[in-house]
Amino acid sequence: MVRGCGLSMDSDPIGSFFLHKPIVLNSFPEDTNHPKWKLTPHNNMDTIPFQVNLSCSPNNHHSPPPPLHNTTEMDFFSDNTNHNVSASASASASNHHHSTTPPTLEFKLNTGLNLLTTNTSSDQSMVDDEISPNSEDRRAENKLAVLQAELERMKRENQKLRDTLHQVNVNYDALQMHFMNLMQQKGEEVEEQEVIGGKSEEKKQGESGGVLVPRQFMDLGLATNADTDEPSSSSGGRSQDRSGSPNAEVASKELGTSMNENVNDEGCDKEKKEYGRGVESEDSPSGHAFAGDKVPRFSPQKSNVEHAEATMRKARVSVRARSEAPMITDGCQWRKYGQKMAKGNPCPRAYYRCTMAAGCPVRKQVQRCAEDRTVLNTTYEGNHNHPLPPAAMAMAQTTSSAARMLLSGSMSSADSIMNANLLTRALLPCSSSIATISASAPFPTVTLDLTQSPNPLQFPRHPNQLQIPLQGIPQNFSNSPASLMPQIFGQALYNQSKFSGLQMSHDADPSQFGNHPQQVPPHLTDTVSAAIAADPNFTAALAAAITSIIGGAQQHNNSNNTNNNGNMTLSNSTGNGNITSSNNTNGKQ
DNA sequence: CGTTTTTGACCAGCGC
DNA sequence: GCGCTGGTCAAAAACG
Asked: Is strand C in 7 Å reach of the CB of A276?
């Protein structure tokens, strides 16, 4: 049992589920054994698990249970059908479901299908009454007709959803193909550089270094911060370690990272021994894509750039969400290794380290907001070097992608606008949440504000922010924000599920979303929005997914970078389409 | 007994 | 050089 993380898999409430099974329309959820999934026996193949949990999760203690007849929660389909479903469901509930089971769980799952059984029993009971056979027959016929119509409608909706799923699949495949092509090209380039730069030495060192561990299946390319930083920074504490740090630094720099790079370095071993848990060569047994994006530092041609990067390699991803829990649920296992009182905040800051794999460099800081203690500020740092459960994929991708985005200096102005728009468009429908991508020296940070209050105290702007009107945004981005939401969402989740299967990182290209603005029925947006607004953990997970997409977009455009030595802040606090951009040069975090 | 949390101490970086 | 702050370590305590 993992005590340290209140967010162990068991406790993962909505977020993990949602991220797991977003678009599964006709398959039974794997987690149905989970108490949270044991809703009703009606959760059959015709039921959409997505829909069910959104409105029914009894464990969502962060928000009050939704009203029984809230049609919005069932608003997966068209308006008229929705009303029909709601009406019939309500009728069914009022007629027959007076059991002790929470009614929300019962009839919301029924949609129309359960009417068959309930009404049948109802008919049966009516037979007992003394009703004339004619009227009884008529009544039965009517009901039969209604049920048949309902069944037909459900079939159509099912077909519609299937089509949607198919569309998403097709898009995903295209994206994946594109991504793989890019990665292949990148890999070839890196190989060339390695050959030119005398990489043979590294390889020799790696081969003779004893335990060789594949660092990653695929390197997303640009450096973030995790491993190499980790040694130098984390080892900071002890002088003994410090003496070893330079070696580690050099070693890690020399060890190539391209695709399937092998990593082993005495320096790293030395470093990792610091960690009480004897990490050593276990570093990245599984080679996860999040691992060591430290890649580029060996390339001789880039040494200057790399040195510059080394000075700001601690990219961070911060998520603000309202939560009563001590930590937001992100699917990973964490061990607390420290707690400090931070200046200016009466709430202590807790330091956690990922314990899902020995030597995982990912850390996070959790601190409550001084102004509003219901707001939990979680800052992630580093990249996982191990496979992650699907529930953790989104957040982990966030750290990877965001760090990559910030550290690679890849944010062109066009990208900034595009991504900020994407993000804010994605978040706005669900609440007044603010998505803030900010980078303040010395550690660039991507911050997602998922608290629903655009309180300026909570989201201080840097004084030198500028307002940049939206421009150059694809029509379908600015025209249909509501419809964009499910696209982003679905794509992110779908990607995630793919990731978990492939055990590799994968970032989506947001432009793909813009190409199919109507893929998902718009009414889905309402349901998703409601769910998002309902649970902070969920919002955090969503934020992670979205951010990962954005990071992917960034990576996709890495080739035509401008510089981002200046810090960038993108925010949208008004929802009217304006994006705030800033260059701040704050000295301290 | 193994793992996690707590907590005081240590260290680096930064500003004065 | 000194003090402050953030980050980390590691021994001891707590927990299951």
From this structure: yes
| Residue A153 lies inside a defined structural domain of this protein | yes
- Amino acid letter for position A577: G
Which DSSP string corresponds to A479-509? H-HHHHHHHHHHHHHHHHHHHHHHTS-----
| Angstrom distance, A17 CA to B3 C1' | 28
- Per-residue HEC secondary structure of A105-137 comes to HHHHHHCCCCHHHHHHHHHHHHHHCCCCHHHHH
For residue A438, is it within any domain? yes
Distance in Å from B7's C1' to A315's CA comes to 28
Residue A274 CA to residue A270 CA, distance in Å, equals: 7
Instruction: Find, among A293, A402, A291, the residue nearest to A357 by Cα.
Output: A291
Lowest mean pLDDT among A45-49, A371-375, A531-535: A45-49
A567 inside domain: no
Distances from the Cα of A296 to the Cα of A118, A407, A500, angstroms = 64, 11, 26
Strand B-proximal protein residues, Cβ less than 7 Å: A 2-5, 236-239, 242, 333-340, 350, 355, 442, 587-588
Distance CA A586, CA A475 (A): 36
**Segment A498-526 mean pLDDT:** 35
User: DSSP state, A342?
Assistant: P
Domain range for A155: 141-177
- Bigger pLDDT: A13 vs A199: A199
Who has greater pLDDT, A175 or A79? A175
Residue A388 lies in a domain: yes
Q: What is the mean pLDDT of residues A564-585?
A: 33
Using a 7 Å cut-off to protein CB atoms, list the covered nucleotides of chain C.
4-10, 15-16
Does the pLDDT at position A437 exceed 50?
Answer: yes
Distance from CA(A350) to C1'(C15), angstroms, rounded: 19
Average pLDDT over residues A529-556: 45
CB A222, CB A407: distance < 8 Å:
yes
- Which residue, among A530, A588, A314, A550, has the nearest Cα to A425 in the 3D structure? A550
Q: Are A369 and A377 in contact (CB under 8 A)?
A: yes
Structure tokens at A234: 């984390």
- pTM of the predicted model as reported, rounded to 2 decimal places: 0.40
Domain tally for chain A?
2
| pLDDT of amino acid A396 | 66
CATH number of the domain at A366, please. Answer: 2.20.25.80
Nucleotide nearest to A334 (CA to C1'): B4
Q: What is the pLDDT of residue A159?
A: 86
